[in-house]
Amino acid sequence: MLRLLASLYFFVFFSIIAINQSSEYIWKNWGNPAPSELDYAKQVAVNLRDVLNTIGINNYPQKNSLNIIHINDVAWFPEQRAALNKGDVVISFDSHDNYQFFMLLNDKSTVVKLGPFAPKPNSILTKYAFKLVSFSILALLLILWLRPLWRDLEQLKVVTEQLATGRLDIETKPSRFSAISTLTQHIQKLALQTASLMQNQKQLVNAVSHELRTPLARLKFALAMLAPKDPQQVQAMNQDVVEMELLIDEMLSYARLEFSEREMTRAKINLSELVQAQIDKVSISSNKQINHHLKPNVFVDGNDHYLARVLQNLLQNAEKYGEQQILVELKQENDDDVILIVSDDGPGIPEDKRDSVFNPFTRLDSSRSKETGGFGLGLAIVTKILGWHSGACWVTESEINGASFHVSLPISKN
């Protein structure tokens, strides 16, 4: 960062100096007509002096219009006095930049003063044109300095977008001339390492999916062969195998979510119909009373498969831990968000543990243990899917004295 600031400071500093010096030179030689104007007026003064010396000042027809002074009436600078004695025309300027001429006649005592004369005003258009050109050159130089920096920042943007969407085929082309080239190389190296880790994780998930299922299938076959000898013991072992199989399925499902967002398609979804369909599905196998109040025709943008997974997990959670009833509400509180609330009348969740239930493999107490069939991944999956949809989930105490899960999703504007 220090290198970036120093580079920018010195670049701008020296660019301004170069532009100012160049502009001043151009203005003096081409933009400002004052030098040629003075040369012309000086030549006129020399011609007048020659005329006065030839015919005599008293014989000059317009003598009364001349400003005649004695040489000793003015406090001359030494160089001015010397120039007058040499026969040169002396030019001086007043506080308003008006110029005047002094010339000494042949009698070496009479000085004729011409002026003061106001200089020819410079064109405002020319003045601002020079300023425009100067600032345009500075802007061009800044663009040339910023171009490598802009290219590196664009590359960083592409790299982060690729990582965010799960693309692992990252290609980098760092610039040697950028002020942040070192930082860019470190970030791109980190991105390549992250992509490599994600690729390894994906390969590990695929390997686990195959390698763990194979011995489990053999174990289930062996238990089936042993069942006639000790049915009770084999049944208990079968339950452990089934539980292990369910845990592996849940873990693999959660791990695959890391790579699912890239392939997820989005569309406009009628959330009211989607919620109703999931309620109907759960009602078939549930022995609890499910009450619902759904606002009709609420639309959101997203993937219906993954949003259905969110609804399934929340309803199954309420089914597991509720005692007698489940309450589902879908309402729109403002023009931006829709709120889905799934409540149960179970033991509830202590306030100090409500945030932790969304962490993977979190089970709070015996009432929410593996005996109910959960492994602590359902709510973690809910959080991850809602993150893809710019949504959120939080827990409060329900109106029916259990846990109440609130889901917020942005309403479709299309």
TrEMBL record:
Pfam families noted in UniProt: HATPase_c, HisKA
InterPro entries assigned to the protein according to its UniProt record, in alphabetical order: 2C_sensor_his_kinase, HATPase_C_sf, HATPase_dom, His_kinase_dom, HisK_dim/P_dom, HisK_dim/P_sf, Sig_transdc_His_kin-like_C
EC assignment: 2.7.13.3
SMART domains hit by this protein: HATPase_c (SM00387), HisKA (SM00388)
Entry superkingdom: Bacteria
Entry's localization field: Cell membrane
Catalysed reactions, semicolon-separated: ATP + protein L-histidine = ADP + protein N-phospho-L-histidine
Membrane topology recorded in Swiss-Prot or TrEMBL: Multi-pass membrane protein
Broad EC category: transferase
Record-given protein name: histidine kinase
Keywords: ATP-binding, Cell membrane, Kinase, Membrane, Nucleotide-binding, Phosphoprotein, Transferase
GO CC, one annotated term: plasma membrane
Claim: Manganese is one of the keywords in the record: no
UniProt KW Ion transport keyword: no
Histidine kinase domain mapped to chain residues: 207-413
Molecular functions (GO terms): ATP binding; phosphorelay sensor kinase activity
